Amino acid sequence: MAKKSMIIKARRKPKYMTRKVNRCRICGRPRGYMRKFQMCRVCFRKLASEGKIPGVTKSSW
Asked: Where is the signal peptide (predicted)?
């Protein structure tokens, strides 16, 4: 779980746009972030396996 203070700090508008930190909207994790879904890989995998993300299916070959 991410620190509450860092999550709140990341939500604020930065002085310069290059300082913006992408964080997962669900858990606040800064690493493994996917822009298209605005969440980290951990939350993405959990929601995708539950079928809560439309158009995403588990791949197998």
From this structure: none
Q: pLDDT (tens digit, 9 = 90+) per residue, 9-57?
A: 988 999 999 999 999 999 999 999 999 999 999 999 999 999 999 999 8
* Domains held by the chain: number: 1
27 is in an annotated binding site: yes
* 10 within domain boundaries: no
Residue 48: strand, helix, or coil: helix
Q: Which domain holds residue 35?
A: 21-55
Parallel, antiparallel, or unpaired: how do β-strands 33-34 and 39-40 relate?
antiparallel
On whether 40 is known to bind a ligand per the annotation, the reply is: yes
Q: CA-CA distance, 51 to 39, in Å (whole number)?
A: 15
